[in-house]
Give the backbone structure.
Amino acid sequence: MENVKTLGEFIIDKQQDFPGSSGEFSKLLSAIRLASKIVSNKVNKAGLLSYIVGAAGSENIQGEAQQKLDVYANNQFIKALTARKVVCGIASEENDEYIPINNEGSYIVAMDPLDGSSNIDVNVSIGTIFSIYKRVSPVGSDLTEADFLQKGTEQLAAGYVIYGSSTMLVYTTGKGVNGFTYDPGIGVFVLSHPEMKFPTNGKIYSMNEGNFYRSSNGVQEYIKYSQTIDADTNRPYTARYIGSLVADFHRNLIKGGIYMYPSTDNAPNGKLRLLYECNPLAFIAEQAGGAASDGKQRIMEIDPTDLHQRAPYFTGNTHMVEKVESLIASEG
Ligand code: AHM
Ligand code: MG
């Protein structure tokens, strides 16, 4: 094949950008690549295999029913990350407590192994989200919760896999964002979207508008602003909401837009989890020239106090995030 750069080659090329350049970080990324392929293969068969579709009969810490594919994806990522021996611990949206792996490892992984899993049974895109940190405790010692409760600004890398009309892996190590599309024929991810950036003029807004009256005045004002006709500012914007964070984020990254899951009167911290969803996508958004906020402050500067904590979330084109922030700031 001509002019094809695989993810494997890309990781090797970029190894000098990785901390220490010991190759450990590359091993970690290749573990994620492997687990993504395994999960992608299973997701693509979800409609055929009735035994993998539907509820697993268990609940995660948020009291949500776990889907069988959630459990499968969680196990695959944990297995792949454990095998490479460079990860000391994993925090997963699907596990109540963090999982200590190997005290000799240097890296922490926080992940949502299968986000948007309520969409599995209806053939809609779902995703995996991951975030990588260096541990703060000394290598060789037992892990502590502080290893996981780091600000998003401390992330070394973050990414997502979207299982859509094709499977894509998009990630950043803090030097821009690159996207790789999976070619199932040859079993490799190929660089298809180098140096991804939000287009300058976003005009898509993505929110569950069923929550309109549960949202604060500032958010309601932003929705009305998005719907107002004004040729100079390219309004009205277009509403698009899949209800699958990775898919909504990915579309907005490519086409320009804002994703919002605000606080509501029945969920003051919104729905999304800071460690597994908000921070990794915030890192990607910023690296792609966009922004991510909880409505008042930069998401990546929030000091986490709990593994599973939630945060209101606004991410996408900077001008759109800033506008909603300004309307929230002027709430009465
Ligand atoms: P999950 O982690 O349980 O799958 O929940 C997260 C999902 C996001 O993918 C999506 O953006 C959001 O929940 C949709 O929530 P809602 O149905 O309230 O709009
Ligand atoms: Mg999730």
Observations:
- The chain has a mean pLDDT of 92.
- The radius of gyration is 19 Å.
- Helices lie at 7-13, 24-44, 68-83, 217-227, 245-255, 274-287, 318-329.
